[in-house]
Amino acid sequence: MLLVWVSSEVLNLAAGVGSVALAQVAEEEAIEEIVVIGSRRGVNNVTNSPVPVDIVAGDLFQSIGTDDMDDILRTLIPAYNVRRFPLNDESSLVRPATLRRLPPENTLVLINGKRLHRSAVLAGVLGGAQGPDTSVISSSAIERVEVLRDGASAQYGSDAIAGVINFVTRGRQDGFSLEYKHGQYYAGDGQSRRISLNGGFGIGTNGNAAVSFEYGDTDQTVRAVQRFDARALEELGMTGIPKPAQSWGQPEIDDDWRFFMNAELPVGNGAEFYGFIHFAGRKPEIEFFWRNPNGQFGVYTFGPERLVFDVTPDGSGNCPSAGSPDALLAPDFWFPDQDEYDADQAALAQIAGNPACWAVNEAYPSGYRPDYGAEILDWGAMTGFRREMDNGFRYDLSLTAGESEVDFTLRNSINPSLGPNSPTAFRPGGTSQRELNLNIDMAKPVDIDRFFSPLNIPWGFEWREETYETRAGDPAFYEVGPLHL
Fold this sequence. Notes:
Elements: E1 2-6, H1 8-16, E2 31-35, E3 53-57, H2 69-76, E4 80-82, H3 90-93, E5 97-99, E6 107-111, E7 114-115, E8 142-148, H4 152-156, E9 163-169, E10 175-183, E11 192-203, E12 207-218, H5 228-236, E13 252-268, E14 271-287, E15 301-302, E16 305-306, E17 309-310, H6 338-352, E18 357-358, H7 360-363, E19 371-388, E20 394-411, E21 426-446, E22 455-472, H8 475-478
């Protein structure tokens, strides 16, 4: 344990250099904060603290115009960085966060001093890094956030090369509170709505529990102009092209909910049972690149020619095929002229009128823009027993389990090799990350005459199991149909 003392003068100095406030301070008085991370001793003060610990009070969260934990930490912790990846597959759905510019898996994330499991998403933009998904943590359940940067790996191992972030949840609360937030960007998009319920109740004589529940959704933002190839087709008379054809911004998030419950039950003689459980789920969705109906290689065209398939088993449809003398030529990909466009549209109308012939344009005559998303479910649970004896000997036994499960979705797309039998919505598959930790920590202070304070001797044991799983999706998503090239 580490005792941090911060005066109002220190806070004023920190604010002057743009640092995060380390603790909330009463006017002209010193406030003491006991933190979990930073030392294996029971309690220390600032004069003998081995490393500095930054403390972000949970009340500061109310001053941030978002309930997303990643955005909150990015605002309040200078070394914490998280980016938006509008079009980067899984990294757009679960954003990888870094501390001190090191990979996500180099930061140890804890809840009440216990390890938070990692996300099932591998961040391809960071070389396949896999870190915890802090956005599943309920912001209204947090009392404070402790950040240990210097010397973290010496105490916590290679998982903490970048540092340690510990979320300390609220304890007992009297009664319940209800809060609703609604906001948007100045541009008029990206509206967010969230309702949260917090409260607590007693357990037995001295026990207590705190409960938090949040539910909300977020609309997408669009920071794009119409693509020039889409604009060229619109000028020639094509209708039905999305405006803009290519979006750029934050994803849409539906059914974003989080639940957290924390409980403690003292049983006497310095011993107590404790634990927490949390669940979270959300459905983010982004838009992929728009597929130009005149020149998407391997979908609409083969080289400069239109892909037209004969779907009759015996090939009696007499349909033009790629490479044949009567192949239907596609207009220029970027700059089609009016005559070329009109001739192409007339030929496509003839193909659409022949049930034996098929082209992707029959399904998406104005091109298409796939919607890529995921259904994310995350849960974790911890139970433990700890005791401090009269002679100073302390032990803490805990069992932690957690799972991150991601099932991907794809709408407004097609498998061209299946022809007219292809669905337009798919389940591409999913991934899961499961972790189980059994941990026991012990410490005993030993008085040594020549030492200023007792020598603290800590030791412990941890058993850990991790399982990563990938699941195949709908066969129609990946199978090679009869119309393959």
